[in-house]
Amino acid sequence: MISEKLNNQITQIGPQTPAGEVLRRYWQPAALVDEMQGSASKLAVNLMGERLVLLRNDAGGFVLTQRVASPDEAPAHFPDPESIEIVDGGPVYPVVEKKGIFFAYMGPGEAPEFPNFDCFRAPDSHVFAFKGLWECNWLQALEVGIDPAHASFLHRFLQDEDPADSYGKQFRDKAANLDMPMTQVLREYPRPDIEVEETDFGLKITALRHMANDLTHVRVTNQIFPQAICIPMSREMIITQWHVPVDDQNCYWYTMFTSFSKPVDKDVMREQRLKEHRLPDYAPLKNRRNNYHYNPDEQNTLTYTGMGLDINVHDQWAVEGLGPIQDRTREHLGRGDAAIVRYRLMLRKAIKAVESKKEAALPMRGDVDVSRIVGPLSNDAIATTKDWEAASWQADMQRRSECPWDASV
Amino acid sequence: MSLGRLGLNRPLTSSVDVCRVRGRAFEDILDGYFPLEESIRQLMARQGFASAWITLLHAPVMNIKGLAPTDPVPFSLRKTYAGMIERMDVFARATGEGLQLDGVGRWFWLDPRDEAPRFAPTIRLGEPAFVRGIGVDRDHPETASGQPANTTACVRVPRGTAVASALSSAVHELGWTSGRAWGGYPLTSGIQPAHDAQEPHVLTGEEFTAGRLEGIVQAGEASDMHSYVLVDTSPDQAEKEALELARLL
């Protein structure tokens, strides 16, 4: 229950807004490399409340600058590249390409270095990037991803799929070394103990599901400041996902799927996701206007939401259902929302630091050597209850030691 | 503050009272929506503390006029009732009547008409708040002679003594190389606004290294003493987890 004014402080992202100024101190995903195909020299980008265009410059690099836009154009409007007009004298933001995503820096001063996260370290063959549009504020989109309990309800599957058919799908693999599908673990142990620890990059979030026979399922996920998460997808892959504001009421999720062992089958991954999205704006085909294809029969027999097997749709429904900007004057968090509470504290501290011109106090800014920030560890493991911490570490180390690229931490 | 009621008044020096106590640095989440004093009471019960220093940072608050402390919060919040604690250092201790909260802090209300000279303990947090602090255990608060060293201590310094010197001396006497201190604010007077020019004896986590107290200082009556809690930040202490937490406070 915070007032509308305090809610605006942490949700609004336009220029000169408190949260917007924090987000502008970090590299922001601006477009997929897939979107700038062939000889195209311009691509409309709608980012952080600004109407922009990605331009290929003479040196073969890219910059982001302002484009002429009509006040009534749609939030994720993608005009024909040939029709894009550039605003003379507008700001020019630096752009770099990383593993299938163009990142832009829209803040003052020198752009920070990129941390050495797995998604940036892995070879191109082992990373696949995609994005999707959600019609809601970026903060509620982020906060669902740092709530480890939601998966046991929102993503509850009443039947388990053969893990052999799980490639490229979240929560469909076996749980660690146990012959039990993740869907069963989430379903049968819905109330995890949640531990949250502040790190160099944000938060490490550990969910402990205490099972029968003195076993504990450990799921380690991460919040990467300011608005990304890093979570396990399967034993082979992790997901690094940014929730990037288009404006105050719309955002894109940008995901890097990073594989530790085999190269990512990008064709399969792209095909799976293009079936669920339309181009060029990457809007999901299931959405509020078609009630997310809600099917009560499916809800009775197969899924908690009745909205299909793609968990992205479940999350989309949950966060869009809160409205364009979640009304937090009506919100009641509990201590189980530990990661959300810790995240908001970090965000408010960062807002204060920027306002006080103490930007060195921001995570991954100042004198910190961010190139030394690796990982983050992100996995599922099952161990005897007293050994869960060591077992979680060991499971990640084993995966990294068997990895063909340098994933050492 | 009646340190004697907690068994903390065993003097180890002639001028500055230093008592090891069974306590620890801690992290926890204060519940939102209840009166602050109730959320802190529940935290202390959960942690097994008789008293605690607690630091709140960037915590939204609401002051709903006409709402009895035992009433549930309404479904939604009107903007005029909202505010924000920027930082607050609170000393909480159980009394016969309930819980006494004293301390200093910086906070603001969106509507200036809500301003008051003290932060009322019935004000509610607008959402749960992550907090860190130092707690003194409810059972056996004072360590007996011969027991292993602990990582916390209570210190009383006579008014008029140079506080920095006295606390450096206390750190030395405890056998630590460094420690951080909280306290020195008037007790039984509630939570007061911190001022830009904070009185030098009011401490909110300042660090002191071991040193010797020069000169003779007359010990005063309990009412003439400033009280502090010290937490060990010596790099060579045995309890590494406690050290890590103490540094985060």
Give a quick rundown of the structure.
The complex is a heterodimer of chains A (409) and B (249). Chain A has 409 residues and is α+β, with helices and mostly antiparallel strands.
Number of helices of chain A: 11
Q: How many domains of chain B, as an integer?
A: 2
Helical content of chain B stands at 10-25%
Shape of chain B: globular
Q: Could you state the oligomeric state of the chains shown? A: heterodimer
Structural description of this entry:
- Chain A: Keywords: Dioxygenase, Oxidoreductase.
- Chain A: This is Aromatic ring-hydroxylating dioxygenase subunit alpha.
- Chain A: GO terms for molecular function: dioxygenase activity.
- The complex is a heterodimer of chains A (409) and B (249).
- By secondary structure, chain A is of the alpha+beta class.
- Chain A folds into two domains: 27-111, 3-layer Sandwich (Rieske Iron-sulfur Protein); 112-401, no CATH class.
- Chain A has helices at residues 4-11, 18-23, 118-121, 138-145, 151-154, 182-188, 266-274, 296-301, 311-320, 338-355, 388-401, and strands at 28-32, 42-47, 50-56, 62-66, 92-98, 101-104, 116-117, 127-134, 193-198, 202-210, 215-224, 228-232, 237-247, 250-259, 277-278, 283-284, 374-375, 380-384.
- In chain A, strands 8, 9, 10, 11, 12, 13, 14 and 18 form an eight-stranded antiparallel sheet that branches. A six-stranded antiparallel sheet of chain A has the order 1-6-5-4-3-2, with no helix packed on it. In chain A, strands 7-17 form a two-stranded parallel sheet.
- In chain A, β11 (215-224) and β12 form a beta hairpin.
- Chain A is globular, with a radius of gyration of 21 Å.
- The two termini of chain A are 40 Å apart.
- In chain B, a hairpin with a 2-residue loop joins β4 and β5.
- Chain B folds into two domains: 3-24 and 140-248, no CATH class; 26-137, 2-Layer Sandwich (60s Ribosomal Protein L30, Chain: A), CATH 3.30.1330.
- The longest helix of chain B is centred in the first third of the chain and has 12 residues, at 36-47.
- In chain B, strands 2, 3, 4, 5, 6, 7 and 10 form a seven-stranded mixed sheet that branches. Chain B has a five-stranded antiparallel sheet with strand order 1-8-12-9-11.
- Chain B has three helices and twelve strands.
- Chain B starts with 16 loop residues before the first strand and ends with a helix.
- Chain B is globular and about 55 Å long.
- The interface between A and B is medium-sized, with 24 and 25 residues.
